[in-house]
Specification:
Blueprint: H1 2-30, E1 32-39, H2 44-55, E2 60-66, E3 71-77, H3 83-91, E4 97-99, H4 102-117
Antiparallel strand pairs: 1-3, 1-4, 2-3
């Protein structure tokens, strides 16, 4: 009788822990945001420098530095950093940084989607 009860309790604990971890995963997904900047980078060294610096910034979860378009798209966790802090990190490297207008963001995303299709 005791073994059946212990087995049942362990099973219930496992189910509870699984549902709690699934909830945490969905909450973390909700916390992510994205920001895109126009940056005055000119060469591949600039690109690498920005990539290396931002990849170590607290809260950064994804990064796309596009040299031809001079854009930096950063995926980050809301509670860990902000667009202002990310902008400052790039400015500290000596680059001019401006937010990307909404219409340009749509065009930039379309280009990324087109590349994925190829």
């Amino acid at each position: 009788m005791k073994t059946k009860l212990m087995t049942f309790l362990m099973l219930m604990m496992w189910v509870f822990s699984f549902s709690a971890s699934a909830k945490n995963v969905t909450e973390h997904k909700k916390e992510k945001s994205e920001v895109t900047f126009l940056v005055s980078m000119k060469c591949e060294k600039c690109q690498k420098r920005i990539e290396n610096t931002l990849s170590f910034e607290k809260g950064v979860t994804g990064l796309d530095v596009n040299l031809p378009k001079k854009t930096v798209t950063i995926e980050y966790r809301d509670g860990k950093t902000s667009p202002e802090k990310l902008k400052e990190a790039i400015q500290k490297l000596g680059y001019t940084v401006a937010p990307l207008p909404a219409a340009s963001k749509a065009n930039s995303r379309q280009g990324v989607q087109d590349k994925k299709k190829d």
